[in-house]
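Q: what sequence does this backbone want?
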C-alpha cells in the first residue's frame, strides 16, 4: 500500500470518527467541529499534494523515457552512418592491398593504422627515378600481391618476389646501408597500409652485396611483439642495426 493512500485513509477515518460524535448544534462540540474542518482541509490538501507529486513523477519518467529514446536514435544513426560508409572503406582498403580474407574479420586497430599509414605515405619525400636502384624483396602473404606490387613499383622500387618457405606472417623489414630512411619508411607505410602488422625494422649487420636492398620477411622472435604504429615509424630518425636488437626488442 502506498504512503499517500495510508495518509489519506487515516485522515478520512479520523474525520469519520469525529463526525459521529460531533453535533453541529451543540456549541460544546465547537472545538471538534474545528478539528473536523481541519481534517477535511488536510485530506483535501493531501489529495492535491500527492496528485501533484504523482504528476511530477510521471513527467520526470516521461522526460527520462524521451531522453533514452533520443539516445537510442542517435546511436542507431551513428551505426547506420558506419554501415553506409563501410562499403567505401572496404573498397579503399582493398585498394591499399588488403586481402579479402583479412577483410572478412577485420582488426579495427589494423584498419586505423592502415588509414594513417596511407596518409603518411603521401608525405614521404623521394624521387621514384632514384629508387630504381633500390630492390625490394618480399614474399606476399596475407595481402593482395598484385596491388602491393603495383604500389611499390609506383614508388619507383625494383621488385623481387618469390614464394615463401614458411607459414609465419610477414612482420619485419631489413635494409642495406645505402638505403635512405625515407625509402624504408615508404615501404613500411605501404605494407602497413595493406594490413601487415610490422614488428621490427632493422639494418643488415653486413650488407654482403645488399647495400641497396630492402628485404621484407618473417622473424619468429617478433611474433609476440606489439606491432609498430605508423606514428612510431614517422618519428624515427634512425633504425637500429640487426646486431643491436635482441629477441626483437627495439627501443623507440
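A:
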Amino acid at each position: 500500500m502506498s504512503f499517500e493512500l495510508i495518509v489519506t485513509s487515516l485522515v478520512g477515518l479520523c474525520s469519520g470518527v469525529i463526525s459521529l460524535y460531533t453535533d453541529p448544534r451543540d456549541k460544546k462540540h465547537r472545538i471538534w467541529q474545528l478539528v473536523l474542518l481541519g481534517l477535511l482541509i488536510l485530506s483535501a490538501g493531501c489529495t492535491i499534494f500527492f496528485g501533484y507529486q504523482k504528476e511530477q513523477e510521471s513527467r520526470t519518467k516521461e522526460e527520462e523515457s524521451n531522453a533514452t529514446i533520443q539516445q537510442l536514435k542517435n546511436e542507431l544513426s551513428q551505426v547506420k552512418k558506419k554501415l553506409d560508409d563501410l562499403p567505401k572503406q572496404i573498397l579503399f582498403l582493398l585498394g591499399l592491398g588488403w586481402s579479402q580474407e583479412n577483410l572478412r574479420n577485420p582488426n579495427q586497430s589494423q584498419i586505423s593504422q592502415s588509414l594513417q599509414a596511407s596518409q603518411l605515405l603521401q608525405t614521404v619525400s623521394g624521387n621514384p627515378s632514384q629508387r630504381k636502384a633500390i630492390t625490394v624483396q618480399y614474399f606476399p602473404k596475407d595481402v593482395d600481391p598484385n596491388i602491393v606490387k603495383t604500389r611499390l613499383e609506383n614508388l619507383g622500387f625494383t621488385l623481387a618476389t618469390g614464394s615463401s618457405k614458411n607459414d609465419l606472417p610477414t612482420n619485419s623489414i631489413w635494409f642495406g646501408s645505402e638505403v635512405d630512411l625515407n625509402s624504408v619508411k615508404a615501404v613500411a607505410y605501404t605494407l602497413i597500409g595493406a594490413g601487415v602488422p610490422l614488428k621490427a625494422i632493422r639494418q643488415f649487420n653486413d650488407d654482403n652485396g645488399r647495400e641497396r636492398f630492402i628485404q621484407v620477411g618473417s622473424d619468429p622472435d617478433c611474433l609476440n611483439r606489439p606491432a609498430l604504429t605508423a606514428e612510431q615509424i614517422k618519428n624515427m630518425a634512425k633504425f637500429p642495426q640487426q646486431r643491436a636488437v635482441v629477441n626483437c626488442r627495439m627501443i623507440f
